[in-house]
Amino acid sequence: MAARVAAGGAVPPLLDDLMPWSVRPLRPGRTWVTAPDAASLRARWDLLVGAEGAEQERLFRPSRSRTPLTPAAALPGRFTGTGGFARDPGPYPDPVRILHGPFDEHWLIPDHRLLDAARPELWRVADAHQLFAVEHGYAPQGAGPALSVTALLPDGHSPAGRPGRIRPLYRRPGAREPNLAPGLLGLLRSRYGDSGGAESVLAWALAAARPSPSGPVVPLPSDGALWAEGVALGREVLRVQLRGAHGGERPRLPGGRRPYVRAAIPPRPAGLDYDQASETLTLGTGRVSPVPAGAWEFRVNGVRMLELWFERRTVPAEAEGLAALRPRGWPQEWTSELLELITVLALLDELGPRQAALAGRLAENPGLTRDGLHGAGVLPVPVSARRPASVLDHHEEGPEGQFALL
Question: pTM higher than 0.85, yes or no?
Answer without folding.
Answer: yes
